[in-house]
Amino acid sequence: MVVLVTGGTGFVGSWTARALADAGHEVRFLVRTPEKLARAAGALGVNTSDTVVGDITDAAAVRRALAGCQAVVHCAAVVAVGPGAAERMERTNLAGARHVVGEAVERGLRAVHVSSIAALSRPGLRRLTADLPVAPGLDAYGASKAAVDGYVRELAAQGAPVDLTYPTMVMGPPAGEQVGEGTEGVAKAVRVRLVPGREAAWNICDVRDLGRVHAAIVDRRLRPARWVAGGVHVRLSELVPMLAEASGRRLWQLPVPDGLLRAVGRAQDRVERVVPLERWGLRTPLTAAAMEYYTRVPVPDNGPVERELGVTFRDPAVTLRDAVAGLRELGRL
User: Is 23 helix (H, G, I), strand (E, B) or coil?
Assistant: First the structure.
């Protein structure tokens, strides 16, 4: 099939395109910057010659990109911080979904929407399953993903051939210079040689396996469904030795109480309401939402992905090793 991929200049989109190509599909891209596409998906050996230049918020460009396609994997989304970020994310991400997924449904195409654990997360969530209702969102990004999720679920409820995937902490080897937020987290941990928290955990989702999930959905043409692509749940006591072995550096687990980390996050958010921390370069990753995600990581239910799609997530030690090796090649470590 000819499969349109949005977000092909990013980490997940590039590896999804690679998986689709490996499965024998022809990949078309909708991107704003073809040169960036060549440095991302192109760096993975994907043929990027079939490209439509445009934005997901441009309905005409989306229609041109979908012409002649049989399926679409919608990976593109805006992640922003700072003044106006919430409005920009919700406006752009929802408009993009309406144009890409909505237009695909109008044409009778199979559509895969890449959502996020952020659309389902709520305080105290213990197990991540695909049947969870959409959550309000712990932060502006989560709220934007929840809004889009609600729209796409409504299409599916009306019988449209739309699948949704819910990745967690995606990491692995870079796509050119694109490493993704999860791999950025690996780089930070290795650089400071400390991983804070007592009972926290990481859900390590290898980006190559996530790509295989998307390709399997397109390829097998199963009944449309929602899929948790959660990866492997790794507690900090297991994670620190894995990171140490992968990096060849000595790392420590800093046993800060998880409740204290959440309190620090809430405190920063309160300060930020009156002080422009972002503008002054004082904002840290320790936001209330980030600490909620970090300290209360739910165990993912990967059963349906393994049984129905035939995708098993690889050993997280391999993912970390390959992520570190890629970061070193880029001079990021």
Answer: coil
